[in-house]
Structures are given as structure tokens and as C-alpha cells.
Amino acid sequence: MPRSRADNPPFQRAGDLLAGRGVSVPSHQTRGSDNWAMPTYRDEAVVLRTHKLGEADRIVTMLSRRHGKIRAVAKGVRRTSSKFGARLEPFSQVDLQIASGRSLDTITQAMTMHAPFNPIGADYAFYTAGQVMVETADRLLPIEGEPALQQYLLLAGALKAMVNGTTDGKRPPSMIMDSYLLRAVATAGYAPVLDKCARCGTLGSHDRFSVSAGGVVCAACREVGAVRVSAAVLSHLTALLTGDWPATRAVTAATAQAASGVIAAFASWHIERTIRSLEMVDRSGSGFVEKFPLDGTSGQRSSQTGDPR
Ligand SMILES: [Zn+2]
How far is the CA of 205 from the centre of ligand 1 (A)? Predict the structure, then answer.
């Protein structure tokens, strides 16, 4: 009796092929290779956040001078005997040596360059302003390993200015945070337009600010949601954006507060836009697989990729 063709199918199902990939490279070999081939690199970085890993380790997310946003494991840092646990707290600027791993890098050395303040003992105003700044940097730079030197210099400079003062002396943490937010969003490519209408380009000091237009708007372009900004608020925004600290000496609390409101709305809008654009990248890039696992529902996958949003 002839053998059925079905006993020896010429084509395996895609799922079998994918499952087979795991068999050809045993997982213990993959993990073992980290120990004998770990290239190291040095960089300096500001710690953005940390989270627990296992019993004693932490994953540290940082903004580095040369490698952009990076994540690395700090082993044993939650033990009291750890030599660099305290150096890897948020807001700290550290000089690092990192060993590249196959899945995650590992911090092998950390030297404090600048510790703006101890986050636990810090003044509440310093802590909240610092927290907004590191979160903004984190969210404006969604892609790891992409160099972002200007963002690094801005963040490190702003954290230093909170403690050491600006080029024109001390300023409240909230004012340094406001200046940082404007400049970080501007560096990301969305500088607010303050000297002409953001819609039609008509020159002049317009008295409405539209977050979606990206700056002040003239009477003709005024839209729903545009907020009134006084001449004093406008010049304070300009000073914060350009780092003109002498011009901020005599600002009133009311003006600073009104400017803060505009800056918060402007920065949030752009941060959300950055995240939305990342979601779009994810659909066609490497993050795609994690979001839509290869479980055979190909019809669903193609409909997701086809959605440009
Ligand atoms: Zn206009």
C-alpha cells in the first residue's frame, strides 16, 4: 500500500517552524554566553527611574550622554552592603561602566558626578519638580539607545541649577522646571512660537496661546481652547525658553503661575503626541510582535498594521 503524502508533508506549518527555533538554541547556552563575552562601555548618565528586579537587584533607567536612554541592571543594590545602591537613585548624575548583555546590560561601576539632592530627605518642591523633569525626559525619549546629547545636557543642567542656582542666581524649583519643560519640548522639535501667530505667521505679540497650534495665535486664527496670555506672561515664557534668567528676576507670582499653566498644557500635549507616534512605530516595528503575538490570528494582525491612525 502506498504511503500517504500526508505522512511526510512538504511544508511545515508556520507555528511548528517558530516553535522549532527555540529547540536549536538551548536557552541555557544563550544565557551562559553573557558571562564570557561581555563588552563593556563607559558613559555618564542621569538616573530617571529605577524598579525592583528579583530579590536584591534593580533595573535602572537612565538618560546618558552618548547612548541616549538606556536601561541596565544594578546587581545587589538593594542589599545594605551594596557599594553603589545610593548612587543610582533618581536625579543622580553618575559616571558608569556598563557590561553589554544579550538581553539586559549590567552596571559594573558607578561614580557619583552630581547628586542634586537625596530624594528621600529632599524638600517637597525640589522632589516634585525633579520628578516631573525626569518623567518628561523619559517620555520624550521613548526609544532606547538613540543618542540625545542636547536632552541629556538640558536635564543635567536643570537638575544642577535647582541646587546650585542658575547663571543669575537661585530660582524656585518650579521655575527651573518650567524652563526645562519648554526647552526639552523645543529640543524634541516642537519649540513654541511666541513672537508671531503660530498659524498664519502674522508678527506681533498676540494675546492667546493655543496648545494645538504650538504657540500664540492672532485674532483671526483664534480657536476654541486658546487661553489668554498677558504681555508679562508672554515675555516670561520667552525668558524661560531662551534661558534669559536675568529677565526672570522681577516676575510676579501671578505671572509665573499663569506661565506654568500654559507650559504644563503645552508640554503634556507634546508628550502625549510623542507617545502616540511611538504606538504607530510599534505597529510596524519590533514592538509589534509583543503586542500581537504570533498565535495564528493573522487576519487580526494585518488589520492592525493597516491602521495608520
Ligand atoms: Zn494668525
Answer: 11
